[in-house]
Amino acid sequence: MKIGIIANNQAFLSEVLATLRQRHQVQIYSGLPSGFPMPARLKAISSLKTIVEGCYSSFLIPHILNWSDATFFDFATIYLVRATHRPKVCRIVTRLHRYELFQDYLTHIDWKKVDKIIFVSKHTRHTFLSKIEFDTSKTLINPTGVDTERFRPRNRAYPSKRIGMLGDIIPRKRVYEMILAFSVLHKEIPDLTLSIAGAGIDQEYLYHVKSLLSRLRLHDSVFFGGRINNIETWYNSIDILVSNSIHEGMQRSLIEAMASGCYPLGHHYNGIEEVLADNQIYYTEAEFVRKVKQYYSLDSERMIDMSLRTRNKVIKDFNIKNEINGIIESIEVKS
């Protein structure tokens, strides 16, 4: 088969692409190529770059649609809007994440031309169907999967007295609130540290977060790591990975951390129960503090046992092989 891939971010698809290339001819579009001939000073003008990218995609995406037997859109965004407002020439499959649920794209896509929608979680599908009428027989719930050989416990020390957060420094991730909760914990466990990693930054939000750190005098206990190059080592340096967001689709970093032997804790946003057990979910700051204290009251043997149980859940429910098979089987069906 000839397979087209339209992806906002190829990082979410590396394993899928590797498998598809072994079995089919593949063409990919994921924005302007890095070597696109456009002066750096013009690329810095975001509005101009958007116009150029729009013209480029308006040429290349129709070419891929006409060439392919099936085209897969990872993220249902403007690319899928444009594709579904053209004559249908191939099978169209898309994967829906959290982001698209609250954008205008949903109402501008002609869903009658979409043959299959893959959802990363049950809650994502539930939210989508509350907004858009679609045949549920053409949907698939296919949770995010991780490579459990790449993400596994390595030379872990129990306990390291380190808590981690991984994600963009933005209001949705509730970093500010986590620092407030950590300040309470730190008074009771003074040698505890918080490591916050993530490349995407809302500069205004970061300013207020760092101002809070200064006022709480936590500079020696809270660390910002930015983009982590060796993420496997980072996971193995922390005891607990916290997801304090108000909403996620299926948080890959949380599942990677679980596979790596971290104990997971998550704020009770919609859908978190698809990943974590009830005793790993909290609503309030007080509940979070209590759960962390309970964890650190355990001996190292019990911590290791919990780590293995958590990893086994990932191997069973969030294995990368299951994710790959779900996507490829949805693409390979002949319309």
Describe this structure in words.
The chain has 13 helices and 12 strands. The strands form 2 sheets. The chain has a 6-stranded parallel sheet, with helices on both faces. Strands 9-8-7-10-11-12 form a 6-stranded parallel sheet, with helices on both faces. It has helices spanning 14-23, 40-43, 46-67, 78-84, 105-108, 122-129, 175-188, 203-216, 231-235, 252-259, 285-296, 300-317, 320-332, and strands at residues 2-7, 25-29, 70-74, 91-96, 116-119, 139-141, 162-166, 193-197, 222-226, 240-243, 263-267, 281-282. By secondary structure, the protein is α/β, with parallel strands linked by helices.
Shape summary? globular
Number of helices: 13
Total number of β-strand segments? Answer: 12
For the report, how would you describe the main beta sheet?
Answer: 6 strands, parallel
Please tell me how large the radius of gyration is: 22 Å
Mean pLDDT: 90
**Element order, helices and strands?**
EHEHHEHEHEHEEHEHEHEHEEHHH
What name does the CATH topology of the largest domain carry? Answer: Rossmann fold
Taking pLDDT < 50 over at least 5 consecutive residues as the criterion, the unreliable ranges are none
What is the level-2 CATH architecture name of the largest domain?
A: 3-Layer(aba) Sandwich
The assigned structural class equals alpha/beta
How many domain regions? 2
Q: Give helix % range.
A: 40-55%
N→C terminal distance: 12 Å
For the biggest β-sheet, the strand order reads: 2-1-3-4-5-6
Task: Please name the fourth-level CATH homologous superfamily of the largest domain.
Answer: Glycogen Phosphorylase B
What is the strand content? 15-25%
The CATH first-level class of the largest domain comes to Alpha Beta
